[in-house]
Amino acid sequence: MKKAILHIGTEKTGTTSIQKFLFQNRSRLLLSGNLFPATAGFISNQRLVVYGKNAPEADLAGPSLDVDDPVALAQWKEQFVQEHCAEIMAFHQRQAADSTVIYSSEHLQSRLTSVDEIKRIARLLRPMFDDLRIVVYLRRQDKYALSAHSTSVRGGDVKDFAFEAIDAAGPYYNYRKLLENWSEVFGEEALTVHIFERSRLCGGDVVSDFCRIAGIDNDSPGLEMPEPENEALSQTALAILRRFNSLAANDPRLNGLGKQQLRPFLIERVQAIDDEWGRMLPGRAQAISFHEHFAADNQWIADHWLEGQGFDQSFSEYPEQAIEIPQLEGIDERLDELIGSFSSWRHGVAGRMGQAVKQHLGKTG
After folding, report:
1. Nearest CA among 312, 314, 313 for reference residue 198
2. CATH number for the domain including 198?
3. Domain tally, the chain
4. Is 50's pLDDT higher than 60?
5. Are both 61 and 9 inside the same structural domain?
6. From 178, 180, 292, 320, which residue has the greatest number of CB atoms within 10 Å?
7. DSSP 203-243
8. In this structure, what are the phi and psi dihedrals at residue 81, rounded to the nearest 5 degrees?
9. What is the reported pLDDT for 121?
10. Does a structural domain hold residue 321?
């Protein structure tokens, strides 16, 4: 049987860890009849999402595709279909027994928000497979919002977190609409819905849980499990990144460096910064109030998809009152120090490369 698994997220549910596992073990998984397709894009299958979108965003498509040019976009989609179908057909021809193609992208949830776009994905995949399964993990909305905030600051946001500022009606939080859209296209029987909570995951982690769904023995010799990721940032780390995000592109403090050059370096360095304030957590009442926006739909999901077993309803991790963080001192100095470290590292690399070139030319001269 030719099977396919379409893992659609949601965002902030360990999707990157699943994708790292599939990518790192791609060759070994292929030996057991499992393909993580290259033409769909690595490590998140963003090219598949671009194909599905009516009007893909520039950040999703990348700089090589002008998403505002309808002719170029149509040509890109036609070429994608040809390349992807060729890869899948070649894989099927090599398999004598059952096989599984595994797709994974959290953007399938967050960017494909209309039934029309999901149908485009279905029209592409259905002719190539005997069985299609949609896998989705759901995280309680308040916990998702907290995790998403750290990601937004990493990406350039300068705002402090507040539940009151979040659009609770947005597609990121409407899990009922998500499940209704995908089941309308693929059928309810095609969906596997799991709760992203450690106690509800096989083996206590999302990679092991996904492997069980996909029929992969992740204890097989040679398979590498990805390192667990800690997305939480301390208050000091968040403050440094927000200050960096607020700088203009031509700010003299950047020493002529591009912000996109600096950002990955800063993110890696501030990840290791701890302080007495720890993780940012708002007050319990605010978290409960935000969660109540979704209570009815979450109960519907529990009854309809999860045999009545919905999200854990404990809010004990939140303090009774939001902790007032004082004005942190030394943020500008620490940011300048990090920028200086990157500048020195960059000059050192350039110097070593120049010296290596000189030595090579001297030997061949």
Report:
1. 312
2. 3.40.50
3. 2
4. yes
5. yes
6. 178
7. GGSHHHHHHHHHT--TTSTTPPPPPPP----BHHHHHHHHH
8. -60, -45
9. 98
10. no
Indicate whether 151 and 245 sit together in one domain. Answer: no
Cα 10 to Cα 321: distance, rounded to the nearest angstrom: 30
User: What is the sign, positive or negative, of the torsion defined by CA atoms of 214, 215, 216, 218?
Assistant: positive
In a domain? residue 285 = no
Mean pLDDT (whole number) for 25-33: 94
Per-residue exposure over 297-314, b if at least 16 CB sit within 10 Å of its own CB, e if not: bbeebbeebbeeebbeee
Question: Radius of gyration over alpha carbons of the chain, in Å?
Answer: 23
> What is the reported pLDDT for 355?
61
Q: Tokens 């919002």, residue?
A: 145
Structural domain harbouring 116: 2-214
How large is the average pLDDT for residues 24-49?
94
Q: 205-219: per-residue pLDDT in tens?
A: 999 999 999 999 887
pLDDT beyond 70 at 362 = no
Check if the beta carbon of residue 234 is closer than 8 Å to that of residue 274: yes
Of 76, 129, 78, which Cα lies nearest the Cα of 100? Answer: 129
Contacts of 232 (CB under 8 A, 6+ apart): 150, 279
Please state, in angstroms and rounded to a whole number, the distance separating the CA atoms of residues 45 and 218: 21
Note whether 174 and 66 are same-domain residues: yes
